[in-house]
Amino acid sequence: MTKILVTGATGNIGRMVVDELLAAGADDVRALTVDPARAALPDGVEVARGFVGRPSTLPTAYANVDVLYLAPHLPTVVEACRMADEAGIGHIVDLAGPKGEHWQAVEDAVEACGVPYTHLEPGEFMANATLWARQIRAGDVVLDTCGDATNAPIAQEDVAAVAARVLLSPGEHVGRSCELTGPEALSRRQKVALLGEALGRELRYVDLPRDEAIEELAKDMGEHAAWYVDGAGLLIEYPQRAVPTVTEITGRPATTFLEWSRRNADLFRDQ
Length: 271
Prior knowledge:
By secondary structure, the protein is an alpha/beta fold. The chain contains twelve helices and eleven strands.
C-alpha cells in the first residue's frame, strides 16, 4: 500500500488533489492542512495539522510517506525537500510553473535534494479571468490591455487530476517535467467574448495603453498590476501554444475555457 501525502490541502489545488486521489481509488491518503475544519476533508483521509511553511510540522506529516505532493512555498522549499529526503520519501510531485519563471526555485530545490521527482508546470489558471469580474458585474465593457496576447489557460481541476494520476503511478513519470495547458490557445479578447457567451451577454473589449491599463487593473491587483500587464505584453511576441499533456496523463479531455466559464458563471454575476 502506497501512502500519499498531499501538502497545502486547504488550498484550491491541494484540496482538489485529495478528491481526485479518492476518486481514482487511493486508500491511504494523508492531507497536511493548517485548518482541518476549513479543508473539510472527506472521511477516510488522514489529517495532519501543519504547513510546508512551518518545517517543524513536517516530521510528523512525512512519517512513513511514500509519495509527496509538494505545494509551492518558496521561503521554505529547500528545507521541506531536504526533510523529505531524510524521511525516506521515494517520489516528490511538485507544483511549480513554466521553466525559468517565478516558481523555478521549487524545481531547483526538488532536484537538489536527490529524491526522484516529477515537475508539474501549469501556465495561467482559467480562474485568473476573475480579474475581470468587477467590471463584468458593473456593465458590458471590459477595460484591459494587450488584447491579442495569447496563451492556453488551464483549469485548476485539470492540474489536480494530473497530479493525482502521477502520484498514483510515479514510476511512469519519474524525472519528467510536465508542461500543463488547457486545450486551446486564446487571446484575451477571445476569453472575454467566451465569458460573454457563457453569461448570455455581449461583452465589449476595450484595449487600453499600458499606463491606463495598469491604473485600471490595479483596482483589482494592487501593486502586481504592472508586472501582470508586462507579462501579457510578452504573450503577443511569444504566444503560448496548447499541449495535450492533460489528456495524455488523465485519459480525459482538458476543460475548455467556455466550459469553465459556464461552470463558474456566478463569479461574474451580481451576488
